[in-house]
Amino acid sequence: MLKPIQVLPAVLGLFALLALAASPLLGATPSELEARISALEQEMARSEHSAEVAAGREIYKASCMSCHGINGDGNGPAAKRLDPKPRDFTTGLFKWRTTPYGALPTDADIARSIREGVSGTEMVPFKEILSKKARMAVVQYIKIFSPKFADPAQQVAPKDILKLPVTRPFEPSEESIAKGKELFTSKGCAACHGEEAAGDGPAGGALVDAWGEPIRPWNFRHAFYKSGISDQDLYRTITTGLNGTPMISYAAATTEEERWDLVDFLRSVGGAHDSILHYLFIDEPSGRVYDERHSSQGF
Question: What is the CATH number of domain 174-283?
């Protein structure tokens, strides 16, 4: 029986023929697609996870390429109708990580986004669609789109990876919410997110992301969060920031306890919509919500 790595050339060759035939749909000329495929073949051959990458590529083609594109730049055939746009993997910038601001994510960070999806977008959760093994294969394939993952100088030391606690250090309370609200103003969060955390701060109107796209500060009155459903997810975002956006890390500007206070304040305003009409026509996300959790359910 042939090993996965032995069938790789045949698989790549077949995909090359299919991709060239479909070039009008993919928005590139045959020569451009041939160059892209050749570059990806070289990256796959160099990867220490070659067989896993090969498996990940087949899954990516079936489930991810229509949005994220043949070369992972977020320009797939379906991308034009999506808001926000699919992630561009070629930059190596990933928003939700346990690593410092500006650093590459861990494999587990990328796998979490694939597993849980991103609420308010068309990035669906794949936890019921793909096995853990399949999801990790996609992770390895996604990494070949950016040369940063192969650069030893870009690797994050284990000591710099955030260790999220399984349980909170203290329960939410009226006191922690009050402290969080005070910190929200004193640490400058309100300048972008607004005094009531509705995403309408005076400094938030002209922000752009690393791709040159306008980006609005998050409205925490939403009953969902792109970063994930748990308090730990919000704590992680405050601690590490969001790569490719003006949301920097607040690890140096706050203590661990203060970041949990901020989490409690942000939870307290979640779901506080002015009216059902306001929610339907203003706050309703453009994509689907996968992790809705209202403030009445334990902040």
Answer: 1.10.760.10
